Amino acid sequence: MNGPEGKYAWTATVGEKGQIVIPKQARDIFGIKPGDTLLVLGDEKQGIAIPPKGAFTELFNLAFSENRED
User: Fold this and answer.
1) 3 state DSSP class of 42
2) 52 by DSSP, 3-state: which?
3) H-helix or E-strand containing 47?
4) How does pLDDT run across 8-62, given as a tens digit for each residue?
5) 32: Cβ–Cβ under 8 A, 6 or more apart, which residues?
6) CA 44 to CA 32: how far, in whole Å?
7) pTM, rounded to two decimals
């Protein structure tokens, strides 16, 4: 099944300890390495999202920027 360019979908199985394995293709595309910390966001209506690495840093910098308007 071909989707729009740059869009992907994978499945993952949750183990007995609640752990999931991120598919190799996803790890390769997004540069996820062993020991990386990922941010998991959840919404009861929309589901779970794992934003790209660096998204939290970007949000943090924006929120705590000295140039922001209060």
Assistant:
1) strand
2) coil
3) strand 47-49
4) 889 999 999 999 999 999 999 999 999 998 888 899 999 998 888 777 777 778 8
5) 22, 26, 38, 53
6) 26
7) 0.67
Q: In this structure, what token pair is assigned to residue 28?
A: 């390769």
Q: DSSP string covering 3-30, please?
A: -STT-------B-TTS-B---HHHHHHH
Q: Tell me how far apart the alpha carbons of residues 2 and 23 are, in angstroms, rounded to a whole number.
A: 18
The residues, ordered by sequence, that sit 6+ positions from 8 with a Cβ below 8 Å of its Cβ are: 25, 26, 29
Pairwise CA distance, residues 12 & 44, whole Å: 19
